[in-house]
Amino acid sequence: MDANNYLIQYPIEAVHPDKFAELLGKPRSAVIEMLKANKLPVVEFRDPSKPNARAGDKLVFIPEFNRGVREAFYNRPVEQRDAWLLWMGL
């Protein structure tokens, strides 16, 4: 079977920073800066035959990012959190 015939669907656990930027609607540069500042949960790939080598690719771990977003949302004052409902007249 041709590799182009495979369909990858979400949800998946982790994505490359470029895909994360696309999903988040942010520029790639913003996600790279968040990674440099350690503001995103990541999984690092390393060559197991070279345990002391620097990390290779990093994938953003989506479940932990979502947990943080939920926590931030629910820890906001009700007036701020529900402002969009009021704005929509709900």
From TrEMBL:
Pfam (any one): Phage_Cox
Protein name in the entry: Regulatory phage protein cox
Lineage: superkingdom: Bacteria
